[in-house]
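Now for a chain:

_____
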Amino acid sequence: MKRQTKLTPLEHEQQSVARQQTQQPSAREFASAEEMLRHDALHTPVPSAIAQRLQESLGQLQPPVRSWWRRWLGQ
């Protein structure tokens, strides 16, 4: 038979708080979906193979064509 010790109310509360902190990751609220996506992008590493393929794809893109009014105004 296991020996049980009586806890003081303070010790009992400390143990329950510690148990909750280890079981649940901290939750965070975001004001918008964009803010959530930015947070996720900062904390999620991109695999190197995907990053390399993305750089290759970006290198193959043509520069955007200037609009007719910018060419006409010489900008």
Summary: The chain has a mean pLDDT of 82. Residues 9-23 form the longest helix (15 residues).
